[in-house]
Amino acid sequence: MQPLEPLTVLIAEDSAADRLLLSTIVRRQGHEVLTAANGAEAVEVFRREQPHLVLMDAMMPVMDGFEAARQIKTLAGESLVPIIFLTSLTESEALARCLEAGGDDFLAKPYNQVILTAKIKAMDRLRRLQATVLQQRDLIARHHDYLLNEQRVAKAVFDKVAHSGCLSAPNIRYLQSPYALFNGDLLLAAYTPAGDMHVLLGDFTGHGLPAAVGAMPLAEVFYGMTAKGYGLAETLREMNAKLKRILPVDMFCCATLLSLSFQRRTVEVWNGGMPDGYLHCIATGERKPLAARHLPLGVLSPQAFNDRTEVHSMAVSDRVFLLSDGVIDTCDAQDQLFGVERLQQLFAANRQPDHLFEEIEQALHDFGGEARDDVSMVEVSLLEAAQVSPSAPVYSDSGQSCPLDWSVSFEFRGATLKRFNPMPYLLQLLLEVHGLRAQSGALYSVLAELYSNALEHGVLGLDSSLKRDAQGFARYYEQRNARLDALQDGYVRVHLKVTPEGEGGCLAIRVEDSGKGFDVTRVMQRPLDDVRLSGRGVSLIRQLGRNAGWSDDGRSAHVEFFWEALA
Amino acid sequence: MSVVTEVSPDQKKLTISIKGRFDFGRHQEFRESYERLNQKPESIVVDLKDATYLDSSALGMLLLLRDHAGGDESDVRVVNSNSDVRKILAISNFDKLFDIS
């Protein structure tokens, strides 16, 4: 055994002879000795000299050993200063009192040198153990503080990115633990230029910083591409490719993406690896599951990735509810999962839709006892298009190089129509014209509507009357996908012409397709405020653009936008 | 041992059995179970008969195994999963990558 480090030992003993005897024994072991003749003196010496260990006589004048022990223990605080009582007391009650007063051991008189030495050694071991524990505890606490601080800073940076979107929109309710990000949960929402709303609920594999790292690039892609008018498919492909490239093999991101169109009253859904979401139809009370059809983001190569989405019709105030696996994977004490059935029972019992989150939280609490911090829920409801007010995009260029007199024509042919969405490019081009920026939402909506009419009704020959009811609606989008897959030829042409007019200008858009056309007179006779599922596109174009018209038996559509002098 | 490995006599087939929770705590053992082999097996079977639970890091480990075994050319089967485990594999659509039974 390695020799003891010399200790400072306080000997509190009222008998001068005993004091001398003890001092000699202790000094002989190599320790330094301090002495006191009563309890009050002992406390005073302790305060001044901070000895490592105390030998304390129980019975002393002025202040007895019991009271002195209590005071010394208080002064010592967290660090262990062992107190060995020296006592001629023999009855067990008195010995117990020594320990109750804070003593760690006792030594019976007359003193046995061998036992005293052994006890000092044993107490010193305890003292060191306590010191090590305290040191390690403080170290852990310090590391924990660092970690929390790092998370706080990382979260602040991330919140700037994540909340640059529209999570605060009136039709979004969500619940996330403040540090959900460090459990890999991610919630993003943003408006497209056409006023549609894109929402992403994601869940990265793993916990802590690794789980949070992938969130930043994912959010950048989501916001960047949504703002530019890319659809879900393009955004998904880009997110998948990016995550596949940057993440290690065993990391990926389960995600559900939504695109809510207030104009068309539809929701487009892609679910890769998330629990079922639910489309809640308020009128019927039905909750349609939005099941995972795909592998999570970041697993498949860009070639193998599947961006196929599902489209469902919605009525105003219908809701889409998404949740992370923290909800259904909450375990009780027996390792039983909360599960989907219990969630559905809550749905069935729910009377006030606005209290659903609280009811789920309460049920999870009652079930599992302890709250998990990776429980995320979001609910998005469909508003009247007129109630939606996306904030205007911010542009940073000066406007000096604004092009005001030009025209351009595109022809998009079969193979291109299958995979490529030209809308974002066309919109970027048009928004170089500063006068059009104020109407970017209307412009995008009209352009997108003209293009999808030309593609779906023209080139693909789909019958819009199919969309009259919800089943037909689903069938319509099935047919759309099937015909698009089989598409060989056909074209959509887009002609854009910008001309200056006085201080302002005019944009003329013409879109032609290779389809069979339609009965223009009949469609134009419909009232403008048509709220049926089908045919909404045409009235939208007529309301948002000027001088809208169709020619060549419906195969050619044109519409104009004007702007005045810029302020 | 919560991860037990068995190599067929001809060294062509590796069977990895997981007992109890299949989560991040098994990470090291699971990786070692196939990385320490001198000869790469032609096929790998992950037996989940005694696995009670599987979390997303376990899914990540399966992806690592698949990658190690040759990615799209690999032959990795996941067998004997109980209903809870099968649900988790189904939600993640891992049946598109693994032969699950």
UniProtKB/TrEMBL annotation, chain B:
<dbReference type="GO" id="GO:0043856">
    <property type="term" value="F:anti-sigma factor antagonist activity"/>
</dbReference>
<feature type="domain" description="STAS">
    <location>
        <begin position="3"/>
        <end position="101"/>
    </location>
</feature>
<dbReference type="InterPro" id="IPR002645">
    <property type="entry name" value="STAS_dom"/>
</dbReference>
<protein>
    <submittedName>
        <fullName>STAS domain-containing protein</fullName>
    </submittedName>
</protein>
<dbReference type="Pfam" id="PF01740">
    <property type="entry name" value="STAS"/>
</dbReference>
